[in-house]
User: Fold this.
Amino acid sequence: MTGSTGTAPWDGPAIYVEGVHKSFGDVEALGGIDFVVERGKVLGMLGPNGAGKTTAVKILTTLLSPDRGRALVEGRDVVRSPAAVRELIGLAGQSTAIQEELTGRENLDIMGRLYHLDPGTRDRRAAELLERFELVEAADRPTKGYSGGMQRRLDLALSLVARPSVLFLDEPTTGLDPRSRLGMWDVIRELVAAGTTLLLTTQYLEEADALADEIVVIDRGKVIAAGTASDLKNRIGGDVVEFVVVERDRLGEAVEAVRPLTDSEPGVEPGAAQVSLRVGDGGSEALVETVRRLDAIGVHTEGLGVRRPSLDDVFLSLTGHGAEEPEDGPTPRGRRRRPAAAEERS
Amino acid sequence: MTTTALRPVEALDVPRPPAGQLLRGAVQDTMTLTRRELRIWFRNPVFLFFTLVQPVIFTLLFRYVFGGAIPVKVPGGYVNYLMPGIVAQTAAFASFGTAISLARQLQKGVIDRFRAMPIARSAVLNGRLVADTIRVAFTVLMILAVGYAVGFRFQNGFLPAVVMVLVGIVFGVTICTVSAFVGLAIKDEESVGSFGLVWLFPLVFVSSVFVQPSSMPGWLQAFAKNQPVSIVVNEMRSLALGGPLVLHAWQSALWLAGIVAVFVPLAVRAYRRAS
Ligand SMILES: Nc1ncnc2c1ncn2[C@@H]1O[C@H](COP(=O)(O)OP(=O)(O)O)[C@@H](O)[C@H]1O
Ligand SMILES: [Mg+2]
Assistant:
């Protein structure tokens, strides 16, 4: 939707955040964050629970005002011109706009009415979105009976009724099963391909990696790293191929066989007969090659798999503490696996 | 840290839309949200039970089970004494839906989502208020029809009867403003479900709704005779059956205006703060 405010078109960044602070009583949720999202790009805001992601999203969507700093959406100041910001944005995620007594179509229709679309446009838009989010069959059933994945899809559809030019998705896949998560990723990719600017918050590195052009990592209200997904992964060493050698006495032999696959020293835990190889970006190729080489020398393995760096790994290498570790010292690498990281094992 | 230095960006100046456009938008949004609330109410069995089934149960219970044991001196007997009280009770209990619905929408984030949309800020609460008025009117008329079926008859002419119905509706909507505050302040559907109406029970039961307060022990009488529910019910009874209108009328008006003056600002403040 274009703003009815008659302002000149904006050619600056879609989102501009400068020195934003926000405290709730004694809790400093945001301690001065800066970032910029260019138009049509996807920013992944990556951080553990309590990092300040929702607070940042609420400020950018005019639900909270910052204590200090400035936030602009397509040039409109969220504090000075909230109404103009609201004309441009869509919001979905942890909260839901779905009313469970109403059907999918009715929920969409109400959004259309609230955006003052005329009846024809409303019906067309609802039909279009139901089709696109694979909700046609369920369209006229109360949403109470929808599965978690369907509810997230409908909720996203609700935020798209007015064709927002900047979309905010606050942890859109948290709590979804792996299949629904992948479905959600596809939907989000389509949106982005159509040119929507997207700010996506997530606790999963794979998600930011799969969807975002740029990532900001936030921890306790501060941006602790920013860059592309591969920048971040390179900083933490990339994918890891792991396996356990069944014939323990042949551990050394196995390590020598796979040594050429990594630039760094293979990690070996003799006790568990476990080998781990840092293989940079090429996880799958390295996995196949590992299988080939071990097969060639007749060594059997258990638990062979490629592990993507998790949020824990990112945090460990950036801050020296794990993602959910409040204060103290480093956690052993990969001690806690996030569920999504575990699903990636194959 | 790879954060590159920010290239400073100046904000656009955004002109405010004309007042007429804002007002039209506000009316349209209020209507949309009114329709939405009413539709939710019609689809939710719990809300329907509280507003439609429960009052019928109370009517039948007091008319046929307890009524025979409650002596009253009004023309037509206990059923005529009872129904103005039941109308007030029904109107007041209908406010349960207000509290639950607001708490739920706040908790789930629906209200936040509305606030991030370009809709009039006032529309959420105004839509509620209009929907509540329609809802209360609907239940009041429904319960009066049930009353007629079990023998109730207005004794004081047509116009006073109409005024009684209106007083009942205004009373119900007034209680809804208190409930709106309760729902917005508690913000949790389950707690509202358990405690959202607790404050209303003593007001409804220790009152002139079902029995004459003169039958209560002295210490209770003082409360039962002077609290707002009794005062409004006395007014409604005078309108329905004939009796001292004027005194009850200004007392009622004062109470209702006072409640609105306190709870509307409280509800609006709770709404603004809740996020
Ligand atoms: N309304 C609030 N009142 C008090 N503290 C809050 C409120 N909202 C968030 N916080 C606190 O601010 C911090 C950041 O929260 P949030 O932005 O929700 O993090 P995230 O979305 O990354 O999990 C947390 O410590 C949280 O407890
Ligand atoms: Mg959050």
User: Anything to note?
Assistant: DSSP finds twelve helices and no strands in chain B. Chain B has one domain: 25-273.
